[in-house]
Amino acid sequence: MPANILLVEDEPAIQELIAFNLVQAGHHVLRASTAEVALTLVKNALPDLVLLDWMLPGASGVEIARKLRADERTRQIPIIMLTARSEEQDKVQGLEAGADDYITKPFSPRELLARIKAVLRRRAPQMTDDAVEVKGLRLDPVTHRVQGNGETVDLGPTEFRLLHFFMTHAERVHSRTQLLDQVWGDHVFVEERTVDVHIRRLRSALEPTGHDGLIQTVRGTGYRFSAQG
Amino acid sequence: MPANILLVEDEPAIQELIAFNLVQAGHHVLRASTAEVALTLVKNALPDLVLLDWMLPGASGVEIARKLRADERTRQIPIIMLTARSEEQDKVQGLEAGADDYITKPFSPRELLARIKAVLRRRAPQMTDDAVEVKGLRLDPVTHRVQGNGETVDLGPTEFRLLHFFMTHAERVHSRTQLLDQVWGDHVFVEERTVDVHIRRLRSALEPTGHDGLIQTVRGTGYRFSAQG
DNA sequence: AAAAGCGGTTACAGAAATGTGACACTTCAC
DNA sequence: GTGAAGTGTCACATTTCTGTAACCGCTTTT
To answer: In terms of residue numbers, what domain contains B206?
Structure first.
């Protein structure tokens, strides 16, 4: 099973090497060289796994791990630490900061892939995605249900993902391109107008509960999910 | 949170050292020096975690791990491997045999405890032997019986485990992969569509009592057992 | 006012996911 | 052995979802 992996590594050569192996194994790779970029990327792309270098310019890996664990949405994302030497102190700190595993450089591609597989496998049963609620509209990823004012809304897969993305990224305008990247996946080739159609489907599905107005059109830009008028 | 830990280690000095640290941290420790004793103890005591030495007289650690993963009752118990050197081959094999983590000797007590904590934290909730009842459908693991509205339903082993899992994890959506991991065991290689077939068999078995329908299809995601519509 | 741009809406065919029945194979009790 | 029961796969049927195109009305430009 391919996964979206965020690779945080400042050394270009190493970054390239690791990324190559990950892609080779069928994973989709995002890259970051600094802590700042890494944090932004995580929140926007919500990867399945973060490969985090221990030594970084600016904030250290542990610091990043702490911040990720502090945020509601990024809390469940597994982290694998890349440590330079077998310094036990580092390992322990990494684990306590919330890393799910660590691996000591240098490592073989096989080992790295095995670790990734193991971490992803044991994360699956947890699936502690938290429910979101806005203005009486409630979406629960765990039960895969959407309810508003007593009514239970029936959504198709794409509509569900779309609404989920909207609710977890409310009050912000998203272009059609951004929505395609985030909800459909940034590798697919789909017409932008398709987004409109799904917006329409989602709106009419939400109509019975009266929550359709939460999805607003921003002419010339895109769409926005907002609790405000 | 104190836990029951089975320590499998043939070197008396090391065994003593580790056990001391575990007890110090408030854990309850069982010990075994050979593979044979280890397997017996696991099945009788059902510990929360197994600390498994890589090198053992007789069967190797990997072998034990495989056997534990093959048994119904011990399948869920997390395993942490203790490897002597940082031999990458070992790590990979250990992970592939079903170990949840490994740690390289020598290690600090702090590190070991951090690992144990991490592994226990993500452990899947265990199944109980208590009878479950939802909407008049009653499943008793002890008598191995399922009854609904006076009717007694006859289920095959897999159907029974499947229903049991559903009833103890109601309202949540489970992907086919998760169901395979939880009901079949995460070591087996079975087609995902097989789940569909068993869902169908379970549904038609429950039909006489009118309790099919509790098993709902969530298109694009998996299945859900729910008392709600 | 005409033209161009933009989004809403609908219809529909192809794609994808799931339901269903059949079958070969294994296991186990007798 | 032999037959019953259980299991995993497959092929096919059925249902549902999805992407596009086409058309419409409204708004902004020219």
So the answer is: 132-225
